[in-house]
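Entry 14. Structure prediction run on the chain below.
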Amino acid sequence: MATLPLALTKSRTPAPSTVIAGLAFLLLFAQPLTTLGRDWWNDPDAGHGLLLFPVALWIAWKRGRAPLAAPQPALGLALLIASVILRYLSGLASELYTMRLSLLGATFGLIIFSLGIRQLMHWWLPATLIFLSIPLPDVLTSSLALPLQLRASEWGASLLEMRNVPVRLSGNVLRLPGQQLFVTEACSGLRSLTALLSLGLLIAGLWLKTTPLRVILIVMAIPIAMVLNALRIFLTGFLVYYVDPSLAEGVMHYSEGWAMFVIAFLMLSGLALLLSAMESWWRRRRLPEAA
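Output returned:
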């Protein structure tokens, strides 16, 4: 009996190889780890990572170990070596996005090495959330933001014309009498679109059971984000023309953005509840047929 606590103590002590592997991982990927945390904290376009990362860890912990999960050292080691090579090649090119993808690849490699590919598939939702928390490269962000700026400007101008507000559209500039509204990259809707896609994935993974309905919910986040961003532009122009030009900036402008995001969240949640009810109805309908 006296040897039982000692055995338990020994079993809970990390093996030297585990400690060495952990220290090597932190040493190799210290730069992408620190820069990623810095961008989450300082960059508004990447701020959703502060929420997604801890939520992903919590989901992984709640789901626990997959049934029949078994280590696959060869596959895990191959992915780990490829990730380390990619990390140093991207470091030479000073390419942050690829460097951060190598960090993610190395993490997946360690999971496969110790628990197998079945475990990684079991953790598909937290793994995807962590992937979405990595900020997009500037080149891709710029190419996506410009079409969204122009489309949001067109829709916002059309809504203003429907409310008899004299407006002339020049690219991403809305010209009102005595006032100009610039739809900047920050107002393009890309920020809310990225956050809503991540939120849609989270809701779909937790509330829905079938892949087609999950895909529907995630895809619907795109038009919801675009329409609400156009409504935000319309509301700003309407208030500027009829109330006060100062409402186009400052606290009121940012409050509109938060309000629209809350509305988008409620719309996405309502759609998820509707799809979940459809799933339940379909399962109930199929039970008598199976019997």
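DSSP finds twelve helices and three strands in the chain.
Filed with the rest of this week's runs.
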